[in-house]
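name: query_chain
kind: protein
chains: 1
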Amino acid sequence: MDFELHCNSANVEIGSTSGVGYTLYIGLSFVVLCYAYERWKQPKLQHKAVRTSLLNASSYYVFELMPSTGQYLDKPSAVMAGIISFETNLHIHVFDTKSWRYIKIPKSPRENNFNRIPLSHL
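structure:
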């Protein structure tokens, strides 16, 4: 069936350098256009301080971290953000798959840290 399919409406050129250049130009143009639009709509947008270097930008803004209750990340959300963790009796071991960092966090005896990772130590 694949050999019987004919396209009469366009030519497809595989490996065309001009096509790649046009695609890069269009993509870069839209990035600049969107940036200019956002700066025009919100010229005095305040900088938001990132309190942890462990999460990437999309994870940091998707997970609403509440500073009043402490900043913790639950383990299923951490796995989705590329953070693998396990606990021993004295420590929480955290491995960040994006930056290949290993962090050992001491467990607090006064807090229940079950199924969550404290971001204040990172």
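note: The chain has a mean pLDDT of 77.
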